[in-house]
Each structure stands twice: as structure tokens, then as C-alpha cells.
Amino acid sequence: MTAMRDIDDYAPKGNRRGKRSGTELFSVLAWSVALACILPMVAVALAAVGGGTETIQHLADTVLPRYALTTFGLVALVSVGTLGIGVGAAWLVTMTRFPGVRIFEIALVLPLAFPAYVLAYAYTFILDHPGIVQSTLRQVTGWGPRDYWFPEIRSLGGAAAMLVLVLYPYVYLLARAAFLQQSGGAFLAARALGKNAFQAFWLVSLPMARPAIASGVLLAVMETIADFGTVSYFGVQTFATGIYTSWFSMADRSAAAQLALCLLAFALILAVVERSTRGKARYHQAGKQHAAMPPAALAGWQAAGAWVLCAVPVCFGFLLPVLILFNMGLQSEQDLLSRRYIAFLQNSLTLATLAAMLTVFAAVCLGFYQRLRPGRPSSAAAYMSRLGYAVPGGVIAVGLMVPFAAFDNALDAWMRANFEIRTGLLISGSIWLLVAAYMVRFLAAALGAYESGQSTVHANMDSAARSLGQGPLGMLRRVHLPMLTPSLLTALLIVFVDVMKELPATLIMRPFNYDTLAVQAYRLASDERLEGAAVPSLVIVAIGLLPVILICRQVGRR
Q1: Are 396 and 434 in contact (CB under 8 A)?
Q2: Share of the chain above pLDDT 70, in %
Q3: Closest of 208, 199, 218, 207 to residue 181, by C-alpha
């Protein structure tokens, strides 16, 4: 067998030197991005170790057990909830037919547009003690405040419910794709052996889809441990809230770094598990032909039950919150066209645009480097860059703020000592460090979109471009980028919307008096001004609908 050769080896000999220099450029850019992505993790580990054992011992004696138990409890509840709703809904819309099933195929994705903390604001407004639900209950029954029991929305269970409603689409999308790809042969064989539909699903279809389902659940879990807005507003003390409290309320950077290290370790374990599960997400058909699974037609009470089961997550995860927020916005005194809100919108759009452009540029450098130099080095750079998707925004913020704040302080001290000039916070006080944090956090999403498009560009096109004298830059500009325009636009849109919704990193790293729509919504909700928080929340949801519409179009085509 012939060993795989570098793509530069196929270039004409007279042009190899220039082409190799272009390849080296992408190598430098790709590894620069990879090192930038692991910098926050290394900085968190070093800051945690530098904090000494006294801080971690104090944390272990006071808040660490509570943070760990609450975080694990939240993860367990979200895992069970997203698993049940996602898998059940995916099976119903894929393997059965009932009135409205085509609508539910798309509508079940809509809750992805909501950040969990926005959902928390909406349901707190109607379910809290002064809300319309309990107020109506007291008026109808004549009960007093202590005459009845009502579930507390500001609790661990309430936070888990909000997260389940917005995260189950991860499981739904992956489970639905897995069910669609399954052949009906094994399922029909189980039915022929006397198993009913549920037994055949449990014994045949579910095990074959298990790797995809596990990946969806793990993605939901990683979003859960990264959540700050929901648990903070509900007063649920997790590692994410502990990091923010230690950084701002207690001004203890060592404690924040050590808590961030605990959360980082948990997130990286989940990333390794998800990667391993995704790598095993395959099965093989015994037959030569792929027989489509015949959907079962439901009627009567079965059709009604399927309709209700699919309608409940759509209603409570999208329709009802939109109506609540719209009503809250009408009651508020917030003017979306005022100078303050225009400034919030401009700040949000500026950060999202810069972060999307930088992140997609980094994804192109990494993806094209893998194309030019396939092998372990390029794969390692891509893998290191993907780790950021498993790291919560608060951890990335701490990991970047600690070293760059130390650098700014050292530079300021040196300039004052030698030139009597105060430089201030040149890096840690700028939006560029915040944009870099966004890039680290969301690079995996952009890289995935770019690689999915790049896989459609045949290797013969690269060889043809090289034979015509094109170097790496020319091949990227003339061949790849024109063909990958839809994938690049998708990546830009995904990162843009994710940045609009990101809260913990923005809260910790934003420059002074540089607030965004997400920060304004969080601030108003923290002051119990929920009607006012509905206005920026509605804007965030409206923008969040853009990638969801793209996903819905893909679901509809399939």
C-alpha cells in the first residue's frame, strides 16, 4: 500500500515551495487557534493550584458539597426529562401517523429558540405567589396564602423543568435521525416473533438508536452544567453560581478558579464520554437492501394520546412562554426604541457579529488545515479546539481574566514606575477578550458546520486546482469558499445567535457600562422587574428563531 502523501506533493515541482509556505501559514493559524482554546483551561488549572490548599479546604468544609449535590441533582433531573420527552416524541413522529404529525415534526424543535433563563422569567411571572395562577386560585376558592400547597417554581425542580423544556430538542433531533436511518427488517422480525409494538421498540429500535440518544442527552447535560441565568435567578446553588459569587461578591479569585477547575473536570469527562459515544454511533444492516420502517396509523384514543404527548412540550416550551412574554412586554414601561435599548441592541449585535466572524475564520483555518495535512497533528489541533463546547462560559471567563488581568496589572505597574503613565486594563477591560471567549466557547459549532460542507468537496477538485497552479490560498478562495458559502452562512448564524444568548461570560468579562440585551434582561429580572425583562427577552427569542428555522427546514426536507 502507498502511504498517504501531503497534498503539496501533487503540485508541480516549480510551485511546491510557494505552496508549502501557504500550507505552513494554515498550520501556524490552526495551531494558534488550538492553543488559544486550551489557554483558559490551563490558566484555570494553574490559578487553582496557585490558590493553595487552604482555599479548597475552606470550600470543601462549606459550600463545595452543596454545589456538587445540587449540580448532580440538576443533571440527573434534566437527563431523565430530556430522555423521556426527546425519545418519546421522536418515536411518535417517526414511526406513527396521527393528525398533525407533520406539524409536530417541525414544531418540536421550536423550544431551542429560548434560553432557559428567559423561560424562567416567563413562568415565574405566572406561577409565583403574586402570579395570575395562584391569585386566581385564591379568588376562586377563598383560600388564604397558608391554606393550600403549590409547587415552588424557584427550586431545583423548577430549574430542571425550565432546562428540560428548552434542551429536549437535542435528544429529539438525534433520536429522530437515528430512527429514520434504521431498517424495518429487525423491527418487523420482532413483530413476527410475537412481540407487540412497544416490546419491539424497547428490544430492537431503542438499542440501535442508543448511541445517538446518549449523545443528545450528554449535550443537554453539558448545557445544564454551563447554565447560569436559570439557576441564579431561582436561587439554586451550583458550581456555575458559585464561580460568579466567588468572583464578584467575595472578590476571591482563588476560590473562583478552584470551583471553575471542579466544573472543568466534570465538563471534560462529559466531553470524553460524548466523543466516545459518538464514535461508536453506528450499526450494520444484515440485509443488502434498506427496508424503510412502515409507520403505524393511529386512530381513536391512541391518536389523541399521541397528539397530546407531542403538543405538551411544544405548548409549554414555546407557545405559552411567547404569549406570557408578549403580555408582560405590553405591561412594562420599557421602550425598545429608547436610546438605552438601542445601545443594548448595538452592543449585542457588535459582539455577536465580531465573534461570529472571528469564530468562522478560526473554523476555516482549522478545517482547511485538516484538508491540507490530514493526520494526527491536524486532528489533534481540531480536537483541542472542540473542547471549548464542553466548557461553561464562566470557566472560560475565569480562565482568560486571570492571566490577562495579571498581565495588565504588571504592565500598568511597569509603565507607572518607568514613565509615570497609567495604561489601565488594556486587554482584560476590552471587548476583544470577551470576543475571544465567545470564539473558544462556540468554535466547535462553527467547525462542525464547516466540516459538514467541506466533506462534499471531492478531493479531485483539490488535485485539479493544484495542477492548474493554485496554491492553498488560491484553492481556498477559488474552489472551497464559493462551494461552502451555505455552510459558512449557517456557521455564522449559529455562532451569532449563541453569542446573543450567552450570559455568564458576558457578565464576568464585559467592559464597564457595556451591557447587552441578555445582561439587561438578567438585571431587570434580578430586581424582580419581570415585565421589563420581557422586552429584551423577546428580542433574544426572536433572533434565536433564525437557526431554529434553518433546522426546521432541514427536518421538513428529510
Answers
A1: no
A2: 85
A3: 208
Return d(Cα 549, Cα 106) in angstroms, integer: 9
CA-to-CA distance for 121 and 154, rounded, in angstroms?
10
Cell numbers for 167: 434542551
Q: How many residues does the chain have?
A: 558
What residue type is 435 in one-letter code?
V
Query: How far is residue 124's CA from residue 119's CA, in Å, rounded to a whole number?
Result: 9
pLDDT in tens, 363-394: 999 988 888 888 888 888 888 888 887 778 88
In contact, 461 and 478? CB cutoff 8 Å? no
Phi and psi at residue 98, in whole multiples of 5°? Answer: -150, 165
> Which residue reads 477559488 in cell numbers?
478
Sequence-distant (6+) residues with CB within 8 A of 551 are: 109, 112, 173
C-alpha cell at 218: 450528554
Q: What is the pLDDT of residues 323-341, one digit of tens each?
A: 999 998 888 877 778 888 8
- Grid coordinates in use for 434? 470577551
β-partners of residue 97 are: 297
User: In the 8-state DSSP scheme, what is residue 289?
Assistant: S
What is the pTM for the complete model shown?
0.82
State whether the Cα torsion 192-194-196-202 is positive or negative. negative
Bridge partners of 183, per DSSP, are: 292
> Is residue 230 within 8 Å of residue 239, measured between CB atoms?
no
Spatial CB neighbours of 184, under 8 Å, sequence gap ≥ 6: 291, 292, 293, 294
Position 3 pLDDT exceeds 50: no
Asked if residues 182 and 293 have their Cβ atoms less than 8 Å apart, the reply is yes
3-class state of residue 251 by DSSP:
coil
* Contact predicate 556/496, CB 8 Å: no
Cβ atoms within 10 Å, residue 415? 14
